[in-house]
Amino acid sequence: MRTPIRILLAAVPIVALSIAIPFVNRDEPRIFGLPFLLAWIAWWVLITPVFVWSIGRVERRW
Q1: Could you say which DSSP state residue 32 is in?
Q2: Prediction pTM value
Q3: Would you give per-residue pLDDT tens digits along the chain (62 residues)?
Q4: What is the C-alpha to C-alpha distance for residues 60 and 30, in angstroms, rounded to an integer?
Q5: What's phi and psi for 30, nearest 5 deg?
Q6: Domain spans of the chain, in order of start
Q7: Residue 6 in contact with residue 59, Cβ under 8 Å?
């Protein structure tokens, strides 16, 4: 049961940083002075360790 959860948690940042890029590729709106695409990438790079940490929590729980 834990394998699908791990795969899903690992896939979310991968999808957000690869497949979703064409859908968020725009200059406006600007977030903290950054184009939206750059802000999107920076956000996901910063939030990816949370997903990795949650995979570790799922592993320890089972």
Answers
A1: T
A2: 0.81
A3: 567 888 999 999 999 999 999 999 988 899 999 999 999 999 999 999 999 999 998 888 76
A4: 40
A5: -95, 135
A6: 2-57
A7: yes
